[in-house]
Design a protein that fits this description.
Mean pLDDT: 89
Number of strands: 4
Shape: globular
Strand content: 5-15%
Helix content: 40-55%
Distance between the termini: 52 Å
Number of helices: 6
Structural class: alpha+beta
Largest sheet: 4 strands, antiparallel
Order of helices and strands: HHHEHEEHHE
Strand order of the largest sheet: 1-4-3-2
Length: about 190
């Protein structure tokens, strides 16, 4: 009888324990959707920046960054029904300061660059079933250095215009292939079939 009671208690014990909540899984389509959104946003912004630079040099591009970059990002985000932000540990616009997990992702990408490894996006699911993808932004065009490079690459007039629009600018001193920041793209829960 004693052994039967012990066996019954042992069998009932797992039912009394709390089941650990299931770890959320990222959307299967998160990475391609995020890459597509980042590429589209970058292409639209780059086209406007290139046109402005062609018409009036790098100084003419500063209002595009100050005024149009956010608008373009919001337009793509709204159309694609997801969240898109550009963040940096050395932002030009203080609203784009990376903190928390975003700052950690930038540090992880820099570690990968220093180790000579390929940069792989960060894809994480949250308890609310959203998926956040963080993609690296690397300066890979010499044109970018006209506003983000060292003092010998950024003309005096451009530095002055940047200082007027962004008095607390920290987004200079980069070289080609430096990590500039990240795209943070948040996708809602996957549609249910």
């Amino acid at each position: 009888m004693k052994h039967t009671l012990t066996a019954c208690l042992l069998l009932a014990l797992p039912a009394c324990e709390k089941a650990a909540p299931a770890k959320p899984s990222p959307r299967a389509d998160a990475l391609p959707l995020a890459k597509e959104a980042a590429q589209e946003t970058f292409a639209l912004l780059s086209a406007e920046l290139a046109a402005a630079i062609e018409q009036g040099g790098p100084v003419a591009a500063i209002p595009v960054c100050a005024e149009r970059a956010g608008e373009i990002t919001r337009e793509v985000a709204t159309r694609k029904k997801l969240g898109i932000v550009r963040l940096s540990d050395r932002p030009r616009n203080p609203a784009q300061e990376a903190t928390g997990e975003d700052l950690a992702a930038i540090g992880d990408f820099r570690t990968e660059i220093l180790a000579g490894r390929e940069l792989r996006p960060s894809v994480k699911a949250a308890a609310d079933q959203t998926t956040t993808v963080r993609l690296p932004i690397v300066i890979n065009q010499p044109l970018c250095l006209q506003c983000h490079g060292n003092d010998n690459e950024v003309a005096a007039a451009t530095r002055e215009a940047i200082a007027r629009s962004y008095p607390n600018d920290r987004a200079r001193g980069y070289s080609l292939n430096d990590l500039r920041g990240i795209w943070k793209i948040t996708l809602p829960a996957a549609p249910q079939p």
